[in-house]
Amino acid sequence: AIFTCRSWCKYLHSVEYIGLVDEEEDTNSSNRIPLRKSKWTVGVKGLRFSWTANDTRIVRPNRIEWESTSGLKNIGSVEFVPSSSSSSADSSTTQMNLYFTFTAPRAVSSLFRRSNKIRKYTEDVLLMNMLTDFRDVVMDEDL
To answer: Residue 20 pairs with which residues in a beta bridge?
Structure first.
């Protein structure tokens, strides 16, 4: 299945689930949740990057961890932490913590080293907008 993610991230072109992690590589087997392989494609400022990744651990409904196996090298996790909302006793919220580390291609990494403005733009504009849009989609769809 291929998912287009433009509604919450204009930089994420697609995510395609391409199978399950081989049993020998499955470090999550005691949890009985099958780990998936996926292909990701992103584009920023005319640059396009893609990678394949394996889920490395899933703890439903709170945590997903992954590591790339080809393409843009990255590793990360997303954690969903329930918390009580201060606005209403009946309402609850979920905090999403995203941990993402990647090895940028040489051309991009040299720009990051030379300019704190690019790093700040990436963190404050690209990532913050993406996470805010993702939150809005989840809330609108009542997911």
So the answer is: 36
d(CA 118, CA 109): 10
CA distance 35 to 96: 21
Give Cα 92 distance to the centre of its chain: 23
What's the whole-model pTM score? 0.68
The answer to whether residue 61 scores a pLDDT higher than 80 is yes
| Secondary structure in 3-state letters for 6-51 | CCCCCCEEEEEEEEECCCCCCCCHHHCCCCEEEEEEEEECCEEEEE
Task: Report the C-alpha gap between 119 and 116 in whole angstroms.
Answer: 5
List, for residues 104-130, the tens digit of each pLDDT value.
Answer: 777 777 766 777 776 677 777 667 776
Residue 76: which H helix or E strand, with range? Answer: strand 74-84
Inter-residue contact 82 to 92 (CB < 8 Å)? yes
What confidence tier does 25 reach under pLDDT thresholds 50, 70, 90?
Answer: low
State the Cα–Cα distance between residues 51 and 38, nearest whole angstrom: 8
97 vs 77: CA distance, rounded Å? 8
